[in-house]
Amino acid sequence: MIISLILGLTSSLSIGLAVFIFDFNSVLKKLTSRIFSGVALLFDNQLSDFEKETELLRVAPSVLILSAKLLGMIIGVAVMFCVGPLMIYLLKIENLSNSFRYLISFEYLLFLITISILFIHLASKRNEKNKISKETYSIIEQFIHNLIMTSLSLKFLAKIDTIFDRKYRVDNKNPIFILGIPRSGSTALLNALYSIPNFGTYTYRYLPFLTLPCITKFSLSFRKNKIKTVERAHGDGHKIDLDSPEAFDEILWKLYYPEIYNKSNIQSLKSDSINDKFKFFFRRQIIKISNIESERKGVKVDDFQKTRYVSKNNANISRISALLAIFPDANFLVPFRDPLLQSKSLLRQHLLFSKMHKTDPFVLKYMNDLGHFEFGVNHKTLVLGEPFNYLGTPNDLEYWLAYWNYAYGFLLKQEVSIGFISLNRLINAEKETMNKVLGFIGCDFSWKSSFKYFKDSNYKLDNANTINRDLLRKAYATYNKLNALSV
Fold it and tell me: Which pLDDT band holds residue 130 (cuts at 50, 70, 90)?
């Protein structure tokens, strides 16, 4: 009885300490993420041999450190596993050899397994509670993502997909491009437009096989949604699942124009920058995805000519003329909101994603692969005419207000038909405003949705008095012009 009690108490304490002190899951994920990232670099034909060698040398030290840390954790657990028998020996209840024989007894192993399950369950609850992002991949999914998300793999898959795309080659007109800068209601607008049957775009189901939509479509016919609806990493109330639309066409631009992505900014693309090879590739990809998604929502093959592609990609603000070179009949929509509210939201997201990027290296790589450079450690500004050269840092509210002025000021100067959309009007008069938006893009669909897509964020501007007054006046002068031009 005394022996069982000592073994039980020491085992419970030891396993508890091992689980709560050693974050095995975090270390293992970081280690595998860095290893798979290194493997993916070897298959990336956008990098020179020198760049590959430099990146691998940069990754190698962290792999060695994490491997040593993991080995130390395993040794630590092994030592803790022996605490019980050592206690029995030190108390002189049994000799050393007999003390360790208890480790293979049925009663001890049963007790050990029960306690282990309990502590692992409690630890998983703790990790779930403290988890920053719910959009996480398993280790296997991370490996597949890193293997596929290289230019060589994606271009190869695109060629394979052409064998099966005959049904979906029906051209469609008037693609819709939602652009601007984030936190303007663009995601809500995308979700609203995607709810219309003949509007199609990429969803999370196509990742990471983005250039393989036809084959992916066949596999989706036999695959149920195993992921519950969760709040996305932004923490802004938007719920997502595998069928949620998202901005993934930036990946297509990265495949053919990797040189525009500098360390601190994304260069603009003009109409004369677009070659015929990319025009054919880009058109074919979005025609297929819009037809496949519309069919999935009930549109018949005979009506594919009525389907339309809808894109939400903020970076497209820097390539409007390039898009018109590919789609002369394109429609552009630019949602906007109160500059201080939008700037505060931008700052909040930047701080949130910076924390995520530092906590989980795979999240940073994931965002880089998707071309999402709006916030966080990998933040890049768009080059719109003259480069954005504000002296502040992205950790300051004024930085984002200056960037707001920079982006929307540029859009107001464009000699292109742009539908400016006030988020405030969408919130307060959704049906009326959405019908005006649909009229602007030439859609005869009447907005009758019972679901409210646009909601007030209720942000408080408690630090508005500290903002530079000239910067603030300029922002609200631009805001008034946008309101005057809005649909």
Answer: very low
Look up residue 276 and give its two tokens.
């015929």
C-alpha span between 290 and 196 (Å, rounded): 12
Q: Which helix (H) or strand (E) holds 231?
A: strand 230-231
Question: CA–CA separation, 274 vs 123, rounded Å?
Answer: 52
Q: Model confidence over 377-427: pLDDT tens digits?
A: 999 999 998 889 888 899 999 999 999 999 999 999 999 999 999 999 999
Strands (E), 255-393: 265-266, 308-312, 331-336, 381-382
pTM beyond 0.70: the answer is yes
Place of tokens 């809500």: 188
Closest by alpha carbon to 46, among 154, 125, 144? 154
Compute the distance between CA of residue 359 and CA of residue 33 in angstroms, rounded to an integer.
12
Q: Look at the alpha carbons of 53, 58, 59, 60 in this order and tell me if their dihedral is positive or negative.
A: positive
- DSSP conformation letters of 172-184: ----EEE-S-SSS
Contact 40, 68 (CB under 8 A): no
Here the tokens at position 374 are 């709006």
